Amino acid sequence: MDLDRDFTILAVSDNCTNLDILSSILTPYYSVKMATSTGEALNLVNGLDINLVLLDIAMESQDCHEFLAKVKSNEDTERIPVILIGDSTKPEYEELGFALGAVDYICKPFRSSIVKVRINNQRLISKQIRAIEELNLQDPVTVISNRRGFDNRIHLEWLRAIRDKTSLSLAIADIDHFKAYNDEYGHIQGDVLLRALARKFVSMLRRPADFVARWGGEEFVIMMPNTELAGALTHTEEIRKSVEEMLVPNLPTATISIGVASVFPSINSSMEELFNMADSALYKAKNSGRNKVCGFS
Length: 297
Fold this sequence. Notes:
Blueprint (H helix, E strand, L loop, with lengths): L7 E5 L3 H11 L4 E5 L2 H10 L4 E5 L7 H10 L8 E6 L3 H10 L3 E5 L3 H26 L9 H18 L3 E8 L2 H8 L1 H17 L7 E6 L2 E7 L3 H16 L11 E8 L7 H16 L6 E3 L2
Parallel strand pairs: 1-2, 1-3, 3-4, 4-5, 9-10
Antiparallel strand pairs: 6-8, 6-9, 7-8
């Protein structure tokens, strides 16, 4: 079995002996966290980057099926695989667990070889799924997120902003005169510029929640959660200046125009409205001289 310290397993049981056995089997290969209640486990799942949950379905005074239902009904955790641990003499636990979204079942008493194989199978499946998703959500030229990936990310941040009653800012950045740039220097050099800009944008993101993607052609989008218009304008102006000062070998200086908009999302507003506002601000920036940042007001 391969060593993979980046793969984090959460073992949940009120039986300390079970947790000790699982830890001794898995700790040499993976990062292992432990919880003795479903409440503690739910906090860890929501607060840490958990890759797999081992859930003792026979815990006393704990509603394990309710815990499983909560994990599978939350957009942030629904894709975490859950393997149930239980008694082979109680198949009804296994049946209900699978109905709620569990991916496998390990019987007690534990056999080390079986535990290792079933955990490793789920690890490999998770890696394959991630690889496929990255191919579908990554722009092949710039190697950052593509439009589809951005749509997925902003949808989650939109819902979070509604829940937390916070602002969400969006910037659309467009390379000035990119068609003429391609005509003059060729599409290969145009791709060099796109990659350089992508690296610049990523390097200037301030917080983990900020997100940038190639929207298509010469356009990039930058999402800034919990950021109001004034802060977004300040940040994007810093980006614009940094791009203007950026040196790309064998290529002339490039500039960008940026349109910025900010809203407090609600059930009565839409992401399409936010995009239209940012696009309108970008149109203003390009038609008032380019190489500038304009906000929608």
